[in-house]
Specification:
About 15% of the residues lie in helices and about 25% in strands. The chain has four helices and 16 strands. Among the domains are: about 130 residues, OB fold (Dihydrolipoamide Acetyltransferase, E2P); about 90 residues, Nucleic acid-binding proteins (OB fold (Dihydrolipoamide Acetyltransferase, E2P)), CATH 2.40.50.140. The longest helix has 22 residues. Helix 3 packs parallel to helix 4. The protein is globular and about 55 Å long.
Length: about 325
């Protein structure tokens, strides 16, 4: 079996300057000196006897909801697992990348959003919506709370982190729940995988956003043709045929020109050996690559794989050209 393949550790391309400018905020200039002409605030009128002031009640309500916010995040499994850092955002580059005011570039862990192309091609479906939604979630305060991943940076030098609003809402979970992003599994940053997977599943079952598009429906592996398919996110169904090993990888063939690749270094994330999948009906998801006339998909984690005990009820799209 040919072992020609894409680089062993493909990474998500760093965002480049787009012909569509990133959504940015204008920073206001603030003076630290108090205004000498500012009038003195009028004194609050005395509260009539026998009537309590509404201020303590408002304070109690504020504290109550501030207390509930992290509890709500924890209930969905999305709460940050440790102390967070608060930082202002300078601009939103796209749906999964932001630049912080201190100069750091930050890539959101656990998801991938459609590309805003940089070569004159139009943006991919829902790319602009994903960026707009992320900016809206961050809001006019531009403040986010971030929790770095176990692997804190990618090889582009970007910070990898889970992002939250100041009230504790997960930005990743919201983008996935709205169908504006797909789950992206990159070990060892697996801390909130279950939460993100549930959020995406909700969008998928409801047919929201990307999941309303035909391209995101499962495709029959036997219909995959290297002449018509290039790289891109795909959900593929088929039966595992031949299984083989090379010096650094385990290979699983789904079709004559379609194979799955698991690097030896990633096998530790699979509780059972994928060699046992021979003859099994599976659904796999991830980025598809074309190399030397073949289609390849790298599997990094079992979250990319669904094993069936019988043929799935919903038939995949065959993607064959009409005669």
């Amino acid at each position: 079996m040919s072992t020609s393949a894409p680089p062993a550790t493909p990474s998500i391309p760093a965002s480049r300057r787009s012909s569509i400018p990133p959504a940015a905020w204008t920073s206001s200039t603030r003076s630290s000196a108090p205004s000498a002409s500012a009038p003195e605030a009028p004194s609050r009128p005395a509260t009539p006897a026998g009537r309590s002031s509404p201020v303590p009640l408002l304070q109690l309500l504020f504290l109550f909801f501030a207390f509930l916010a992290p509890l709500a995040a924890a209930a969905t499994g999305c709460a940050p697992p440790g102390p967070v850092e608060t930082a202002p955002v300078q601009w939103v580059v796209d749906g999964d990348t932001v630049h912080l005011e201190d100069g750091r570039k930050l890539r959101l862990i656990g998801l991938d959003t459609p590309e805003i192309h940089h070569d004159g091609r139009p943006p991919e479906p829902y790319a602009i919506e994903a960026r707009s939604r992320l900016q809206a979630l961050i809001g006019p305060s531009r403040l986010v709370s971030l929790f770095p991943g176990r692997q804190p940076r990618d090889h582009y030098g970007r910070l990898l982190a889970h992002l939250y609003t100041p009230s504790g809402a997960s930005l990743q979970a919201e983008l996935l729940r709205q169908g504006l992003a797909t789950l992206l599994v990159f070990p060892p940053n697996l801390t909130l995988l279950d939460c993100y997977r549930e959020a995406e599943q909700e969008a998928r079952e409801a047919g929201r956003g990307l999941w309303s598009l035909p391209e995101y429906r499962p495709v029959d592996a036997a219909a995959m043709d290297p002449a018509r398919h290039d790289r891109g996110y795909r959900v593929i169904r088929g039966r595992i045929g031949k299984v083989g090993r090379s010096r650094d990888s385990l290979w699983l063939r789904m079709a004559p020109k379609l194979s799955l690749r698991i690097l030896r270094e990633d096998l530790k994330w699979f509780p059972e050996s994928p060699e046992g999948w021979r003859g099994r009906q599976v659904e796999v998801r991830g980025m598809l690559y074309r190399s030397h006339g073949r289609l390849l998909m790298r599997l990094r984690h079992p979250a990319q794989v669904r094993l069936f005990t019988r043929t799935p009820v919903d038939k995949p799209v065959d993607n064959k050209p009409e005669s």
